[in-house]
Amino acid sequence: MTNNELAKTAPIPQRENTKLAMWLFLGGEVVFFVSLILTFIMTRLTQSDYETQFRSHLSIPVIAINTFILVTSSYFVVRALEAITFNGDQKKLRNNLIVVLTLGLLFLAGQAFEWTTLFREGVNLSSTFGTPFFTITGIHGTHVFVGVLWIIYLLAGHKRLPFTKQNHLAIENFGLYWHFVDIVWIVLFTLIYLI
Amino acid sequence: MTKEAVEKRPNYLLIFVLLAAFTFIETLVSYVQQQAIKFPVLLTLSVVKAVLVLLYFMHLKFDARLFSYLFIAGCVLSIPLILVITLVMPVII
């Protein structure tokens, strides 16, 4: 079989290899976050004073706004990808990425505000619920921070070598990562804050 | 994005509106006192939101099946982990 024939039978085009790598990475991330979430759930199930010791300190409206911010940022990522995929619109791509960057920073600011409030109210890293809570939200926040750095890298790279209708896989891969971080937050929002 | 995703071009604004609306409903439901209502509603909405993001924003609905399988593999691999943590941790604690 020639290389061309082999390429035709491949489940994905060769140019999408990095996307395959991204999905592999995300599959691994699922296992990682499931273990963290389970630790929190188990701590919660085995301790009786969850309501008084921890949940009463959480500010649901603030976190709901933060969730809305992250969901909105996901929408702007899709808009950025759409702009470059369908129209090859460089300006729209850049503007949408700047909006995502701003929303990502706003989310981190919201989380910093939440953490500061909790510390002030006595919920710290050594408390029963504080340990799993700060670990999960901290790791998730780190993922958002990495995403923010990634956008800066894309914006800088875009200046030197602009993305085109045909060459935008880097944006798509970033999008997959960002949406995954959004999904993790959707789950955390429900399991930690709402239930 | 695959050719199919490009051709079908989902209504991303509608998906976003749904996600925002579900987040708002979830926040309201969290103030309900009866766990029997609260728990299933919140879990269902959370799963629906995650699936919407996966299918439309991450294009799993239109992309090569292989990508879906990789994500599902991550979920399947988590099952032994779930069993170990839920069965072993209560004994340790």
Helix content of chain B: over 70%
Cα distance spanning the termini of chain A: 56 Å
* Quaternary structure state of the chains depicted: heterodimer
Q: What is the H/E string of chain A?
A: HHHHHHH
The major beta sheet of chain A can be summarized as: none
State the fourth-level CATH superfamily of chain A. Answer: Cytochrome c oxidase, subunit III, four-helix bundle
Helix-and-strand structural type of chain B: mainly alpha
**Major interchain interface with per-chain residue totals:** A-B, 51 and 46 residues
Classify the beta-strand content of chain A into a percent band: under 5%
List how many beta strands of chain A DSSP finds. Answer: 0
Number of DSSP strand runs of chain B = 0
How much helical structure, as a percent, in the residues of chain A?
Answer: over 70%
* Tally of helical runs of chain B: 4
Specify the biggest β-sheet of chain B: none
What do you see in this structure?
Chain A is an all-alpha fold and 195 residues long. Chain A has one domain: Cytochrome c oxidase, subunit III, four-helix bundle (Four Helix Bundle (Hemerythrin (Met), subunit A)), CATH 1.20.120. Chain A has helices spanning 3-9, 17-46, 50-53, 60-86, 90-120, 130-160, 169-194. The longest helix of chain A is centred in the middle third of the chain and has 31 residues, at 90-120. Chain B has 93 residues and is an all-alpha fold. Chain B folds into two domains: 1-62; 64-93. Helices cover 81% and strands 0% of the residues of chain B. Chain B has helices spanning 3-8, 12-29, 35-57, 65-92.
Give the helix/strand layout.
The complex is a heterodimer of chains A (195) and B (93).
Chain A lengths: L2 H7 L7 H30 L3 H4 L6 H27 L3 H31 L9 H31 L8 H26 L1
Helix pairs in contact in A: 2-6, 2-7, 4-5, 4-7, 5-6, 6-7
Chain B lengths: L2 H6 L3 H18 L5 H23 L7 H28 L1
